[in-house]
Structure formats: C-alpha cells, structure tokens
Amino acid sequence: MSLMKPIPSNVTTIRPLYIQLKERIRSDILDGTYTTHAQMPSESDMVRMFNVSRTTVRQALRDLQTEGLIYKIPGKGSFVTRPKAVQELVSLQGFGEAMIAKGYETFSTVIATKDGIHNKVAAQKLKIDMASIMEIRRVRYLNREPISLDVTYVPSSIGRALLMEDLSSTDIFFLLENKLGTPLGKAELAIESVLSDEAVSRLLKVEEGSPILKLERLTYTENDRPIDYEHLYCRGDALKYMITLERRGRRG
C-alpha cells in the first residue's frame, strides 16, 4: 500500500492536475515518506491511486526528474535521488569549510603532486615561469563518498609549504591565510558542464561520459596577486551551487 494520499476529487482549482500531483509527490519525498533510492509506485499504480491520466502522471514525474528529485531506470521504474549538498557562492570559501559549516563530514586524499610542471595556461594565470609551478591533485570526499577531483596549481614555494601541512582535513585557503600568512582577496570563477573521462570517472565512481561540473577558479591575494589556480571536477548528482543575485540600479 502506498503512503501517498490521493488528490481530493471535490477540490475545484484552476491549477493543472499534473502540478498538483507533482507537488504531492515532492512533499512526500522532502518529508522523508520516500527515502533515498526508494522506488516510487509505478505509473499504472499512480493512475489508479490518484484517478488521473497516464499523461498527467508522466508529466509530473518528468518535472520531478528535471528538478533532480527522482531518477529513472529503464524497465524498473522511478527512484528517489540522493539529496544534493549545496554550496552557496556568496563569499570566497574552501569546499571543506563550507560543507563542515553545514554539518557534513569531509576530507581529502592527495593522489599526486608534481613540482616544476610545464603548464602554459597555469603559468599565464599565475604570472610566473612554468618551471616554478607545483600541481597538487586531490580527491575530495563528502560523507565518505568521492565528490570532486581538485587539480590545484600554485607557485612551487607555496606548494612545498602546503605539502608540509595536513591537506587531508584542512582547506588550502585556510592554510594559505592561517599558516602561510597570505590573506586572500577575491577569485574569478567559471562553471561549465563537461563529460567525465576515464580517469575522472574512476576516481569519482561515476560512469565514463557522465555529465559533471567543471569549475575553473583563479584566486588572488588581498594585494591582487594571483596565488591559486584550480580546475575542480564535481559530481553533478551530488553537489549543486546556489548564487544570490541582486539587481542594481533599479528604478523606483
């Protein structure tokens, strides 16, 4: 027996039935009636339960899938997705400090380092010679599941100092400011969707070719000196970013 209650048939409303159904199912997901990865009733069951058409059910489920609340497995049905962690992009924060503040468990594993890496783009971004750049690769974990691959480029002198610290539990931003005495000022950030290659897929435990988020970030000191250039490859099924935009120059 389903835990969802039927939509009352005596309620008069101009709101489309598929929206009413979508909101009913969304409410049951958000209040925990249906837990992560729980299977939803079949389309046929929903048609009978709510006395609506199959078209209405499919539209409601399609919208819920677009919202990221459910996913479909061909031949098996619809299932509740894992809730995504949310990071607000309102200030310059490291991933760890942002997630710990929300009560998540997070840590990193350094998987590779290379000093004197010849990366022309990183050299241009950091405005230093290619031979003076260190690359640090880390896999970031959230609640013990891999969530991102972080590829960081810093001046070699900074990189060697960072490797003397505990990068497994401490953000590079925190170390730069509190251990190396380098206050940070601002960052330039670009976000795009890319397809994961074999190496990234293996590290993040996703299928090769899965859509993931790629963040390119260049961080400056408070004196406007570029200090940290990064490529962050994040699982789109486990993390989302929220941005608050304010309208300026609004006329009364």
UniProtKB/TrEMBL annotation:
Gene3D superfamilies: Chorismate lyase-like (3.40.1410.10), Winged helix-like DNA-binding domain superfamily/Winged helix DNA-binding domain (1.10.10.10). It comes from the Bacteria. Pfam families: GntR, UTRA. One of its GO terms (molecular function) is DNA binding. One of its GO terms (biological process) is negative regulation of DNA-templated transcription. PROSITE patterns: HTH_GNTR. The keyword Cell wall biogenesis/degradation does not apply. Keywords: DNA-binding, Transcription, Transcription regulation. Residues 15-83 form the HTH gntR-type domain. Signal peptide: none annotated. PANTHER family: MANNOSYL-D-GLYCERATE TRANSPORT/METABOLISM SYSTEM REPRESSOR MNGR-RELATED, MANNOSYL-D-GLYCERATE TRANSPORT_METABOLISM SYSTEM REPRESSOR MNGR-RELATED. This is GntR family transcriptional regulator. It comes from Acidiferrobacter thiooxydans. The lineage of its organism: Bacteria, Pseudomonadati, Pseudomonadota, Gammaproteobacteria, Acidiferrobacterales.
